[in-house]
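Give me the 3D structure for Response regulator.
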Amino acid sequence: MRVLIVDDESAVHEQLMTLIPWEELGWEVVGHAYNGEDAKKLTETYRPNLILTDLKMPLLDGLGFMSWLEKSGNAAKVIVLSGYGEFEYSRSAFLLGAYDYLLKPIQESELLVALGKAVDQIRRDTLSQSDRINEKAVLGEGLTLKQDEFLTQAIGASLTDENEIVVQAERLMLRLPENGYAAIAVRFLDFEEQMQARYEGDRTAFYFAARNIMREISRSSSLVFRNLRQSNEFVLIKSLSDKKANLMEPMLSKLQRLLDEGLKMRSVIGVSTCKQRISKLAAAYSESQIALESLKIAGDLKIAFHDPLSASIPKGTSTMEMLWSDIGLLFDLLAETGSLRDNDKLIAKIEQAFHEKTIEGTSVSEWKQAMSDLVRKIDPYPMNEDMRILLNEVKASVQAVRIPYTKELLLKWTELFMARNADAMKSKSGKPLIDAIKKYIDENYKTVSLDQAAERFYLNKNYFCSLFKNMTDVSFMEYVTDLRMEHAKRLLANSNLKTYEVAEMVGYSDQRYFSQVFRKHTGTQPTQYRQNKSNKDDQA
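Predicted structure for Response regulator (540 residues):
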């Protein structure tokens, strides 16, 4: 189909070329005219099927051009684009055979609808039904994409002004909820892997089918759109007349079952509390995400409702967090000293962290937090461009909760890291490692032993002793003893504890042995030290 654009403003020509996917539709823009006289010449030369024209132009205005067009016998459909909203202008245009009349500034949704209607009529007798369906589908996809873009901005807090949200929704023919509503996030699991395995990478077909299922289940009381910031997520804005989000559970269970059966794609669903103002769309979406991340990764529950009270309860350190903390320590050990005796230890630890039994019972938010902490730890390490790209992929995969893919990426990064630093690691000072060891000793000085410390930091015992001595100028046992004695002196000076009680509190079960060590360290017995300290305080 041939199209002619007529307008004296070059910006309008540029806008129309950007808004409409002409080539994808199989349409050809045969010319650009900037006044009615040029439009006449181009019309005679190219015989366009569709003409988009302004009304006010130099030499010959739009009404004059349309009058000529009517007399010429040309059957082109005309859509008028004008900044004039007065009745007389529109009446004159329609009397001259205008198919539609749109006001500037041009709204994408209105133009897409007008083009769809005009093209359908133009080709009714010249195109096959399949061709007409294809063109309407492309135009419909354009409008749907504009709606998705707008709603994605709204839930992402890019749009917060309520009046602006309402106005833009009207332009895009979206019916916003008038009373209460909830945001429902539907996230598909193992999305990229399943997309390749089941759909051969055809995202368009999958998105089309998923959207239809959600619209059918939620009916007219919901807005259904794809979150363009997440490839695996749709969002429903569901009207709630009763203001009770949990009453939707039967409907959501049915939706989840149909998605699983119809698309062969597992999903999880997070639901916000009820909101009244449309300006709270971003807050509602945020609550749906919090609800999603409260779900257990390997649990049976797949629908979560946001609970403000439970969300505010602080959580303790999980097994997952402790495991990833150990992995971070191994990375530091490897990076700073090269003293990890067997690189397979790190690989095995990562494998353990991703094992089903380890993940079972861990929430999405806990897993993401533990992984994010590790990424922040290794992010400052020196790395080449390939490693940096790979680490950025790890970050994105963590946010998308692609657990198997995250494991694959992290293992690749670890192998590159070990290969790149194989020689350079040997010359590192090891200070961060020693600081970590000293912190560990400080926290466990009552019970820590050389074997425990060496095992905790994955070091050969002899190497551990040598490294510690070189970095601190004292042996491991001297450091532990000094620490215990300093604590003992504070207890003797500032409490009425018996000597045997002080001994137990700093790690000695034998009071006599404690007294011998204390005398060697301070030059006096514990009781004498307390007396001397007391006398000095009295004199002061």
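The chain has four domains: 2-127, 174-310, 319-428, 434-539. Let me know if you want a second pass.
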